[in-house]
């Protein structure tokens, strides 16, 4: 969404600006009070001047937001405010008006926050709504023996356990054992080393339990039937706390209410975290590790300026290039797809998915994605930058991308590197992180006999 | 465990090997900070063991856990019935004196008289049941004889046999109902009985220092009053009291995990990656009421309410729950690296890395044969392993033996590893090696074949392995201390 210069009556401007160095920080209590007054800063002028274009955008993205309702509420709020100003004095009618203003303002904010980001002009919006193939890397491996899927391979090699767990650790839970657990650690170490040493990402250790408002600020819904977000039981844990489904939320929270100098940008952050997702689908693809409720992931997060509108585009290309190299060096065959408008979700201006060939599924499966959210998240989370000390701060652009979603990569590796005897070769780049091990074979020990007696 | 019998359970040992953020506090990357309210001994013991729990809290900890015992009346409502093998025959028989000693040494409350009374009633009823069943067998034989002789169904003999059969059925039903009712009363009480105590455990509350290393710290590393750039701690809108690690700190965190992973892999431990959420009743297996203690996070899922604990002793135990290990797989040694969560550390303000509701940890578990000789050998070996690890890290530490009144019900013996923090001029707990013998394996039905020649599937007589473990518990008190570092090891 376009950056609003000069503020908007919908929001109260935060009077405090936090710096990256941590200097001039107000006390904890002061900050709490400031945070209470922070509201998303949405460009109402842009909305009012582009009603038809926004309605068309919502339709193309198959969203459920209603820009006309936003406009109606905006007009209603304006009238109420005028009435309040003209009423003067103190009394019951004025209190009632004030309450109406607050209520309408809240409704308007909810409706405005549901509006999706603008869409990149090159995003596929064709009739078939199919993603556009950007690049195909590697070729499908041909097998001269009957192949197994990752669940069979994992069970035979005793490195993945998904059975006999429902009554203890819940539906779709899993253990990784031996080489499976080593593979998880190796993937994380390999990814982090690349991101930090080659691409100058700053590693941040993020919390996994986060307040709902940060999710909402990222454009993720925490309410509703199809939400992917787990909530903590409020009877035991007050404060509307949720479990992060991605480190993107934690990293966005880290940057919340911060203003950077333009010279500090682009900001490259990375985090390893446990991710928790409700995953409501009941399809057959839920078998094994493909759609699990908890997993480890390495996430990339970027902050750029929006001076020429090219900065975030360039950084988006950089994230995709990093992903391309990471997965190509693992020896996987995958394709990079420019996702169509209806697959973007609310925050993304543009989104690329990476889908790796998974022979056991006989199809491509998503292993990663990259999104350019322009100023959609930063307006909600107040992530800003300024060009010099005296200039007004403006909203930065944020981007995110998955560097390593462990279970999906384990699927791709096991299924593509399997051999006739049921063993699995370890990609060359991971071998140094697995104590030089080259092949995963069935261990002689460690098999459990399950009983209900 | 109190009892050894024909059925054997493996011993289990879990150790909170490396609570990474505690170790981080010793290293240069975090330098020193002030304003951190840490209640070291209490806080970490809470997390790593039960040694500082007050008696009132211990009573909560040792609260019986109906979750791992299915009462007869609930049998039809659950997918499967769980009935731990507590071996009460021996418990209230030949080992009764040891049991009384253990209860006394731990200062626990247990109405043994009542339990024994109920148990004797159960035994009498079981004798009665055996007699009725013998009579029923005889009656069935009589029925077959009458049938062979083709005696008329309305004859006196057939009528008498049938009436006798009906009476025996009714009697059996009544006896079974009475036994079930008594067991429903007895099990929750018996589940709260403590483990035996190792002969070397000091009686009372005073922990014993076993080894004390040289304090190697420099004055310049004492508290300087500077804010630490490695910790970003003011994020109330994300979650009050939380923090982010930045700059060198997350790298050091990862490095410690790598070192621990390498070390344990070289020692022959198998890595295990565990789920972070477990169902409520699994928590009961450790004899703890997590809901009461507010230790786990409770997550609303569509499936059921799940408990978010992250990496914990449970993560290991439930992997083996209701399974039989192969004899030649013992000793089973595994370790896990992961996040751990503790709801007790949620607070309005940041209180230090050691009091974060989230952190990375490395823990290990050992299951081995059910014998006290094996326990002695493994326990000493694991203690040596820990000593070697902390020595290699270059940390000043000491080993402390935990006294009887500071032990939880499930613990046979426990040693704490404490590291020296110059800023508070004191040692603080970072890990506990805990032997549970077969206390947990009996409750979770973790077994191995009694005959080494048989496979797990073939075996009918099975043993329960022994273990060493680490529990997480709520803090009992708060003591403000500062954090400083000791040595740079990375």
Automatic annotation (TrEMBL), chain A:
Sorted UniProt keywords: Aminoacyl-tRNA synthetase, ATP-binding, Ligase, Nucleotide-binding, Protein biosynthesis
Q: Which residues bind ATP?
A: 277-279, 292-295, 366-369
Q: Does the keyword Ubl conjugation apply?
A: no
Question: Where would I find the Aminoacyl-transfer RNA synthetases class-II family profile domain in this sequence?
Answer: 149-427
Which intervals carry biased composition (Basic and acidic residues)?
Answer: 22-32
| Any GO BP annotation | seryl-tRNA aminoacylation
Annotated site (Important for serine binding): 402
Instruction: Give the enzyme's EC designation.
Output: 6.1.1.11
Matching entries from PROSITE patterns are given as:
AA_TRNA_LIGASE_II (PS50862)
Molecular functions (GO terms): ATP binding; serine-tRNA ligase activity
One Pfam annotation, family name? tRNA-synt_2b
Q: Where is this region: Disordered?
A: 13-32
Q: Which reaction does it catalyse?
A: tRNA(Sec) + L-serine + ATP = L-seryl-tRNA(Sec) + AMP + diphosphate + H(+); tRNA(Ser) + L-serine + ATP = L-seryl-tRNA(Ser) + AMP + diphosphate + H(+)
Binding-site residues, L-serine: 246, 277, 299, 400
- Protein family according to the UniProt entry: Belongs to the class-II aminoacyl-tRNA synthetase family. Type-1 seryl-tRNA synthetase subfamily.
What is the protein's name according to its record?
A: serine--tRNA ligase
The organism's taxonomy opens as:
Eukaryota, Metazoa, Echinodermata, Eleutherozoa, Echinozoa
Automatic annotation (TrEMBL), chain B:
**One example GO MF annotation:** ATP binding
Q: Which UniProt keywords apply?
A: Coiled coil, Ligase
Against InterPro entries, the record matches this protein to:
aa-tRNA-synth_II/BPL/LPL, Ser-tRNA-ligase_type_1, SerRS_1_N_sf, tRNA-bd_arm
Asked whether the UniProt record includes Metal-binding among its keywords, one would answer: no
User: Which positions are tagged coiled coil?
Assistant: 122-185
**Superkingdom of origin:** Eukaryota
What GO biological process terms does the UniProt entry carry, in alphabetical order?
Answer: seryl-tRNA aminoacylation
Keyword Heme found: no
Alphabetical list of PANTHER family matching this protein: SERYL-TRNA SYNTHETASE (PTHR11778)
Q: What is this protein called?
A: Putative serine--tRNA ligase, mitochondrial
Species the sequence originates in = Stichopus japonicus (Sea cucumber)
């Amino acid at each position: 969404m376009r950056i609003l210069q000069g503020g908007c009556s919908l929001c109260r401007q935060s009077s405090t600006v936090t710096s990256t160095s941590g200097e001039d920080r107000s006390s904890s209590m002061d900050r709490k009070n400031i945070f209470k007054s922070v509201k998303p800063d949405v460009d109402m002028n842009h909305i009012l001047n582009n009603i038809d274009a926004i309605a068309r955008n919502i339709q193309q993205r198959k969203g459920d937001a209603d820009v006309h309702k936003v406009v109606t509420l905006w007009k209603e709020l304006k009238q109420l405010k005028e009435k309040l100003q003209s009423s003067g004095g103190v009394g019951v009618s004025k209190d009632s008006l004030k309450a109406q203003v607050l209520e309408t303002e809240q409704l308007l904010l909810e409706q405005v926050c549901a509006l999706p980001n603008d869409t990149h002009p090159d995003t596929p919006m064709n009739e078939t709504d199919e993603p556009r193939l950007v690049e195909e890397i590697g070729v499908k491996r041909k097998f001269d023996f009957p192949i197994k899927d990752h669940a069979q391979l994992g069970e035979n090699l005793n490195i993945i356990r998904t059975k006999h767990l429902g009554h203890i650790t819940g539906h779709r839970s899993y253990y990784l054992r031996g080489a499976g657990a080593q593979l998880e650690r190796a993937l994380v170490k390999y990814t982090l080393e690349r991101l930090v040493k080659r691409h100058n990402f700053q590693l941040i250790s993020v919390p996994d339990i986060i307040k709902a408002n940060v999710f909402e600020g990222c454009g993720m819904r925490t309410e509703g039937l199809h939400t992917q977000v787990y909530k903590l039981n409020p009877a035991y844990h007050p404060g509307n706390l949720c479990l992060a489904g991605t480190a993107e939320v934690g990293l966005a929270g880290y940057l919340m209410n911060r203003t950077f100098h333009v010279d500090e940008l682009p900001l490259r952050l990375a985090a390893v975290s446990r991710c928790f997702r409700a995953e409501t689908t009941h399809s057959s693809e839920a078998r094994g590790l493909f759609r699990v409720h908890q997993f480890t992931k390495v996430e990339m997060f970027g902050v750029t300026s929006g001076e020429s509108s090219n900065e975030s585009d360039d950084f988006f290309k950089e994230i995709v290039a990093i992903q391309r190299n990471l997965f190509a060096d693992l020896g996987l065959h995958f394709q990079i797809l420019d996702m169509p408008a209806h697959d973007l979700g609310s925050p993304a201006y543009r989104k690329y998915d990476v889908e790796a060939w998974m022979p056991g599924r006989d199809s491509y499966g998503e292993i990663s994605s990259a999104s350019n959210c322009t100023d959609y998240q930063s307006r909600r989370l107040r992530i800003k930058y300024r060009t010099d000390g005296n200039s007004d701060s403006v909203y930065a652009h944020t981007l995110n991308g998955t560097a390593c979603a462990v279970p999906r990569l384990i699927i791709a590796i096991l299924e593509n590197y399997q051999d006739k005897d049921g063993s699995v070769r370890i990609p060359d780049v991971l071998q140094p992180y697995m104590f030089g091990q080259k092949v995963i074979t069935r261990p002689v020990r460690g098999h459990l006999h399950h009983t209900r007696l | 465990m109190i009892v050894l019998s024909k059925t054997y359970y493996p011993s289990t040992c879990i150790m909170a090997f490396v609570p990474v953020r505690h170790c981080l506090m010793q290293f240069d990357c975090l330098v020193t900070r002030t304003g951190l309210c840490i209640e070291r001994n209490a806080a970490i013991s809470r997390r790593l063991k039960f040694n500082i729990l007050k008696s009132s809290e211990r009573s909560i900890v040792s609260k019986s856990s109906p979750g791992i015992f299915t009462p007869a009346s609930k049998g039809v409502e659950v997918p499967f019935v769980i009935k731990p093998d507590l071996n009460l025959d021996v418990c209230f028989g030949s080992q009764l004196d040891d049991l009384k000693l253990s209860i006394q040494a731990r200062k626990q409350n247990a109405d043994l008289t009542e339990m024994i009374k109920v148990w004797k009633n159960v035994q009498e009823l079981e004798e009665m049941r055996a007699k009725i069943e013998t009579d029923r067998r005889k009656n069935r034989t009589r029925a077959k004889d009458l049938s062979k002789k083709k005696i008329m169904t309305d004859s006196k003999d057939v009528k008498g046999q049938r009436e006798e059969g009906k009476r025996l059925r009714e009697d059996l039903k009544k006896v079974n109902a009475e036994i079930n009712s008594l067991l429903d009363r007895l099990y929750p009480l018996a589940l709260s009985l403590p483990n035996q105590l190792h002969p070397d455990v000091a009686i009372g509350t005073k922990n014993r220092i076993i080894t004390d290393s040289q304090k190697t710290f420099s004055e310049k590393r004492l508290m300087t009053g500077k804010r630490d750039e490695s910790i970003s701690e003011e994020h109330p809108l994300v979650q009050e009291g939380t923090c982010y690690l930045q700059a060198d700190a997350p790298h050091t965190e990862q490095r410690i995990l790598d070192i621990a992973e390498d070390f344990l892999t070289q020692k022959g431990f198998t890595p295990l990656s565990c789920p972070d959420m477990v169902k409520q009743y699994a928590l009961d297996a450790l004899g703890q009421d997590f809901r009461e203690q507010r230790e786990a996070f409770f997550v609303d899922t569509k499936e059921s309410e799940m408990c978010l604990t992250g990496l914990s002793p449970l993560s290991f135990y439930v992997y083996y729950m209701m399974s039989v290990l192969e004899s030649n797989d013992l000793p089973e040694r595994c370790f896990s690296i992961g996040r751990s969560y503790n709801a007790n550390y949620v607070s309005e303000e940041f209180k230090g890395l050691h009091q974060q509701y989230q952190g990375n940890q490395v823990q290990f578990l050992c299951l081995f044969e059910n014998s006290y000789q094996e326990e002695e050998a493994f326990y000493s070996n694991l203690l040596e392993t820990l000593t070697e690890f902390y020595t290699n890290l270059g940390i000043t530490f000491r080993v402390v033996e935990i006294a009887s009144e500071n032990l939880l019900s499930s613990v046979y013996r426990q040693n704490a590893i404490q590291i020296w923090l110059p800023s508070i001029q004191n040692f603080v707990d970072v890990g506990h090696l805990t032997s549970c013998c077969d206390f947990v394996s009996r409750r979770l039905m973790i077994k191995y074949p009694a005959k080494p020649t048989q496979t797990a599937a073939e075996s009918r007589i099975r043993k329960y392995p022994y273990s060493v473990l680490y529990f997480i518990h709520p803090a009992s008190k708060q003591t403000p201390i500062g954090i400083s570092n000791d040595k740079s090891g990375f």
